[in-house]
Design goal:
Largest sheet of chain A: 9 strands, antiparallel
Number of helices of chain B: 4
Shape of chain B: elongated
Largest sheet of chain B: 4 strands, antiparallel
Radius of gyration of chain A: 22 Å
Oligomer: heterodimer
Strand content of chain A: 25-35%
CATH class of the largest domain in chain B: Alpha Beta
Shape of chain A: globular
Number of strands of chain A: 26
Distance between the termini of chain B: 31 Å
CATH superfamily of the largest domain in chain B: ACT domain
Helix content of chain B: 10-25%
Number of domains of chain A: 2
Strand content of chain B: 25-35%
Number of strands of chain B: 8
Order of helices and strands of chain B: EHEEHEEEEHEH
Strand order of the largest sheet of chain B: 2-3-1-4
CATH topology of the largest domain in chain B: Alpha-Beta Plaits
Structural class of chain B: alpha+beta
CATH architecture of the largest domain in chain B: 2-Layer Sandwich
């Protein structure tokens, strides 16, 4: 009789201090040594992690009301514009927002030294943030201008809400062109000078639950060093792609919308980044625990880099022109070795997602669970998976009169 | 035999003088220029590997300093701010000299400053901006 567990049983073991937790990396060796059935019987929870650039991230902020009151129409935090089309003092600061005077790629390749992601890092670090806001003024909100400073501890709410994080697999980016290009996948040297990839592979949350059997709406997670939740499936969620026999997608597939209280988080796991020639963004630390409800879920968690593949995509042509196809597939084990073979050529590889960070996140989450500080939550609703009819649609483009 | 990587800062009054020629001719040293930024009538800098007999080497440094050039050891010119580094690995394919490498299987970045040729490519290639140069502030 193979093992079956419930969330309640696992949580009771966590409360009793008897839970057995391993990271998605550690469990590979156990499963290979003892087999899936025994590994599933021994381990209650497997923890995952990833620490990569995630552009679709940002913070909802409630600034509190000034005296006299103000319905903010335009707002800048440390010079970076925030979205204000909400109630009077609610704003949203996106990770890729740039100051209006940033030269961007007018000075190619642009440096993007300070953007929304950097403001978020400064905010979570407790540094003083300068607010400049203006408004048209109303009878109930007469104020038209304010300049002040604040710190995270002084405002009502700061809620990290990231519409798309944790991509389940990603492209390996190369450049077939004749000149260096500057992309969100890093600097790509000409004529297959390098191949950049961006996934934690065998440690990545959604690659350890490829069919989304346990991760759903309301799943409690490690987010930015604090505790957060899965809010929804992420934007561009695309579960219906081609998969390998172990269930992992061969191309970018599932995504997560996640949220959490910024006040609990840490600048160690929310880092402002500057991608040369591309823009500013945020490196987000994300970790998800997977309850080993049965042997099948253990089989998913035991997946290793050798068995997960990613497509090689040309970012000098096919990607920007949105042309289908790729230059073949390569495993994460090959990518992590430091070089891959493309059309008979040896090409050096580099990651953009910190595997060392992913490992530390999975270990941290494991520690929280072992210490009884983190209980697993049963999803309130599943995320759309392979059986859903979700597809990834391009933008409708119509010729306007 | 001594071998050192050095940075020379030229005041604008000296950039048009044949300093390297003198190092070779008068001090019998081997000069391997790594990088140079010399413009007429402006301050310049030159990075090089200098090697040769120890006493000649020492006399050459004295001569350079007496002429008004600032001489700095190259290895202190690029700084890896480890607390800023997220160990993503992006720099490891950009660094041409193998000074920034990804340790495997740890997958952590290591900076070996003795291999650094101060090309400065890492400064902008590092998304977390963990690499810093003292040269910018020095010039």
């Amino acid at each position: 009789m193979s093992v079956q567990r419930t969330y309640e049983e696992i949580n009771q073991k966590i409360r009793d201090g008897k839970v057995v937790v391993m990271t998605a990396e550690e469990v590979i060796a156990l499963a290979e040594e003892k087999g899936l059935a025994k590994a599933a019987a021994e381990v209650d929870v497997v923890t995952t992690g990833t620490f990569g650039p995630m552009c679709s991230s940002g913070v909802f902020i409630n600034l509190g009301h000034p005296r006299p009151r103000m319905k903010i129409e335009e707002a800048r935090l440390n010079g970076v514009p925030a979205y204000t089309g909400l109630a009077a003092v609610d704003i949203y600061l996106g990770a890729t927002a740039l100051p209006p005077h940033d030269p961007a790629n007018a000075d190619y390749p642009g440096q993007f030294k300070y953007g929304g992601g950097h403001v978020i890092e400064d905010l979570v670090a407790g540094r003083e943030i300068k607010l400049e806001a203006s408004a048209y003024g109303t009878d109930c909100y007469p104020r038209k201008k304010i300049e002040t400073t604040f710190r995270l501890s002084e405002i009502n709410e700061a809620i990290l809400f990231n519409p798309r994080n944790g991509y389940q697999n990603y492209n390996v980016a190369v450049n077939l062109g004749d000149k260096t290009i500057y992309t969100y996948m890093g600097i790509l040297k000409p004529r297959l000078g390098n191949a950049n990839y961006c996934s934690a592979g065998q440690l990545s949350p959604l690659l350890n639950d490829p069919l989304l059997r346990t991760i759903g709406v309301g799943t409690r997670i490690f987010l930015g060093g604090g505790i957060g939740y899965v809010a929804w499936h992420g934007t561009q969620h695309n579960p219906g792609v081609e998969r390998t026999p172990n269930g992992t997608p061969k191309v970018p597939a599932g995504t997560l919308a996640v949220m959490g209280d910024l006040k609990q988080m840490s600048p160690k796991w929310l880092r402002g980044l500057s991608y040369l020639g591309y823009g500013a963004t945020l490196q987000v630390g994300l970790g998800i625990p997977i309850p080993i409800l049965n042997e099948e879920i253990m089989s998913f968690c035991a997946v290793k880099d050798e068995d997960i593949v990613a497509p090689i995509v040309d970012y000098s042509g096919a990607y920007p022109q949105r042309e289908p196809g790729n230059l073949g597939f390569v495993s994460y084990a090959e990518l992590k070795s430091g070089q891959i073979n493309i059309n008979g050529r040896t090409v050096p590889t580099a990651p953009l997602s910190s595997y060392a960070g992913a490992r530390e996140i999975a270990q941290t989450l494991k520690g929280w669970i072992q210490a009884g500080k983190f209980l697993l939550s049963r999803p309130a609703a599943p995320l759309p998976s392979v059986e859903s009819d979700l597809t990834l649609k391009p933008m409708p483009q119509r010729v306007l009169e | 035999m001594v071998k050192q990587k050095l940075v020379l800062r030229f005041p604008s009054s000296l950039v048009e003088q044949p300093v390297i020629y003198n190092l070779i001719k008068n001090f019998d040293l081997m000069v391997n220029i790594l990088r140079a930024d010399i413009n007429p009538k402006k301050e310049g800098r030159l990075m090089m590997e200098l090697s040769g007999d120890e006493s000649n080497f020492r006399r050459a440094l004295e001569w350079l300093q007496k002429k008004g050039l600032e001489v700095m050891q190259l290895k202190q010119q690029i700084i890896w701010q480890e607390d800023r580094c997220t160990h993503c690995g992006a720099c490891s394919v950009i660094c041409p000299s193998g000074a920034l490498v990804l340790n495997r299987p740890e997958m952590t970045i290591r900076f070996m400053e003795e291999k650094c040729v101060v090309c400065e490519l890492c400064l902008r290639a590092c998304p977390a901006r963990a690499m810093e140069t003292l040269l910018d502030s020095a010039i």
